Amino acid sequence: MREFEIIIENPTGLHARPAKTFVNIAKQFSSTIAVYHGERKANAKSLISMLTLGAEQGALIRVSADGDDEDDALAALEAAIRDGLGEEIAATEPQGAPAAGETAPVAAAAASVAAPAAPAVSPAPAAGDGAIKGIAAAPGIGIGPIFQLRAQTLTADDSGFAGVAAETERLERALAAARQELEQVAAQLAEQAPEEAAIFEVHGEILDDPDLLEAVHGNIALRQNAAAAWQAAIRDRAAQVAALDDELLAERAADLRDVGQRVLRHLLGATDGPLLPQEPAIVVAHDLSPSDTAALSGLSVLGFCTAAGGPTAHAAIIARALRLPAIVSAGERVLDLEDGVMAILDGTAGTLTVAPGEGVLAMARSRQKHWQQMQEAAATTAAQPARTTDGHHVEVVANIGGLKDAEAAAESGAEGVGLLRTEFLFLGRQTAPSEEEQAEVYRGIVAALGGRPVIVRTLDIGGDKPLPYIDLPHEANPFLGERGIRLCLARPELLRQQVRAILRAAEVGPVRIMFPMIADVAEWRQARQIVEEERAALGAPAVEMGIMIEIPSAALMADCFAPEVDFFSIGTNDLTQYTLAMDRMHPTLAAYSDGLHPAVLRLVARTVEAAHQHGKWVGICGELGADPVAVPILVGIGVDELSVSVPAVAPVKAQIRGLSRQAAQKLAGQALACATAAEVRALGAAALA
Q: End-to-end distance of the chain based on CA atoms, in angstroms?
């Protein structure tokens, strides 16, 4: 047996994502691997066991391995920890870091300074007249009673034991059904919210956790039925995680309970999820999962307000798609509001006004009526071009992820497709799609647009979105690793096959090719050369080619790209994330990861200026393009195209038709001179009022 000691440098310690990375590496080795922190011991191949360590930043852990490949296992794990286990960690001096088999001085742990625990959602300041201020997430006005959305907890009883074999079979069926659900949810979310898809991958890891399953089977052997055995095992482990001193790690108990309830529903034959409002209401919750938010679409929900979250988080994205007014990051005080209390939810201003007076209520109803009339007018004029009052045309197109989306885009008034996410063809399967399969799908999508242009983004997959049929090495930080064009250039046949399929689809209608995650001109030239070689081999006509601007280096070098590309499309979601060095799905940073930050807007302006100097056009294909506060600023900066979700096409076109380009340019100049995103949003909101 060999071992090493090391200090955890991750800002939030061994929480779910780095722990999952650690476990997946440990599983690659046959040796028995254990991790020690203080008096706690964990099975390195069990995610739940690793979470119960409670290892915060600055914690000293000891990793031991016993088996034929113990040296390789320890070397891989130590390297992964030093690289951050998929997270960025601050660079530190080595200070005599111990090698495998040696012991780190205890003083090193004592001298390390742990980062403060992640702050809880701070109470939002009142905005006057009973109003609570949050962050505007989806436009619109909802007026109605408050409904606190609370998860419904299922409970199993310990009666009705049918024998070990029968109960084991029941458990396996429930696990398989839950696993299939999680795979479906992850695949659906991978297009719009890949970070959220990763959460469901962690949930899937829990279903396969060896320590958990051992405990469940042990309970069944003690003559507990499958439901009771599962519930007891999950409850014990959730309690252990919840009892940890570290707040962020303790919150992972919610993941265990969520998975526990998912499996329990199948074991008990229950189909009901959380208790949802049956009458029109404003939903209030700490936060909403993607499935919770989607479940609201079939109900007469008037909008929602969450205590946590950010304007680019999954709940906000889905809310805009469902046309539900929403505000996020409103603070914990909203969770104390009583059910049935009348409230006004203003998703444009980002306020929740509780128990309003008659005068305030009358004004809100008037504004709500005006808003609804605007939406109806937008729908009736959706086919009309988006021209400002002074005659400037802005193209409004759609982001899509399949044939149904393409058909809906054609009906919505979209002037084309600004982003076809091709990942839907590659995810959720065990083998890659053939060239013929891809070509058939692309042809159908192009045909559905009836001659309007379709921009096809080549495969944007990588370390954070693994495919079972592509052998990818472990990456310490997959968001900065081999993904997008980097992966495709490293595996050129994958790219060549897709390019051939796209070129074959160009026979049906106008197609443009766009490459994701381009960082420098050399990558662009290599990708362009592959297209030209395949085009020559097929004898296909030339197609326009462009790049996504989502890495700051590409924006800063836009003047070098502009003479060579046909167009730019700015992915504001990733550009914001990389510019601000903030994970837009981080539980405490999401509210600050805002595409209207002046630094992001300046990169957009730099890209537009470079493109226009060379006669090229620039589009926006991130969530910012559908943000009512952002639209006038982007138009003023000079963006030529806005690519938005299908439901947002008509409202965005209508908004542009009400803008003066000259006024938008003045507003953009003021926004670029702001110091914070909050200042920009206040400026934009005032312009909308």
A: 69
- Phi first, then psi: what are they for 94, rounded to 5°? -60, -45
What pLDDT, on the 0 to 100 scale, is given for residue 530? 97
Q: Is 560 a catalytic residue?
A: no
Residue count of the chain: 689
User: Residue 106, Cβ neighbours under 10 Å: how many?
Assistant: 10
d(CA 64, CA 36): 8
Q: Which domains does the chain have, with CATH numbers?
A: 2-111 (3.30.1340.10), 126-150+274-371 (3.50.30.10), 164-268 (1.10.274.10), 393-688 (3.20.20.60)
Q: What is the per-residue pLDDT across 439-471, written as a single tens digit (0 to 9) for each?
A: 999 999 999 999 999 999 999 986 555 677 787
Task: Tell me how far CA of residue 300 lies from CA of 152, 285, 296, 448, 454, in angstroms.
Answer: 20, 17, 8, 32, 35
| Distance (Å, whole) CA 363 – CA 545 | 50
Kindly give the pairing relationship between strand 326-328 and strand 301-306. Answer: parallel
Q: Which 8-state DSSP code applies to residue 133? A: E
CB 460 within 8 A of CB 574: no
- Cα separation, 276 vs 254, in Å, equals 19
Q: Rounded to whole angstroms, how far apart are CA atoms 12 and 5?
A: 19
From the list 356, 316, 10, the residue with the least C-alpha distance to 140 is 316
Which ranges of 467-597 does DSSP label H, i.e. alpha helix? 485-490, 492-505, 521-538, 552-556, 558-561, 572-580
- Residue keyed to tokens 């109003």: 131
Query: Which residue ranges in the chain fall short of pLDDT 70?
Result: 12, 16, 88-130, 151-153, 187-199, 244-254, 271-275, 289-291, 293-295, 297-298, 311-315, 318, 321, 428, 462-466, 584-591
**What whole-number distance in Å separates Cα of residue 540 and Cα of residue 53?**
59
Helix (H, G, I), strand (E, B) or coil at 280: coil
State both tokens at 669: 């100049």
Which residue among 305, 488, 621, 674 is the active-site one?
621
Which of 203, 314, 392, 586 does the annotation list as catalytic? 314
* 305 catalytic residue (yes or no): no
- Report CA-CA distances (Å) from 115 to 11, 38, 57, 248, 675: 6, 18, 6, 12, 27
Written as six digits, the tokens of 232 are 């007891």
pLDDT for res 466:
61
Q: How far apart are CA 336 and CA 345, in angstroms?
A: 16
pLDDT of the residue at 112: 27
Question: Residue 131 corresponds to which amino acid?
Answer: A
Residue 111 is inside which H or E element, if any? helix 106-111
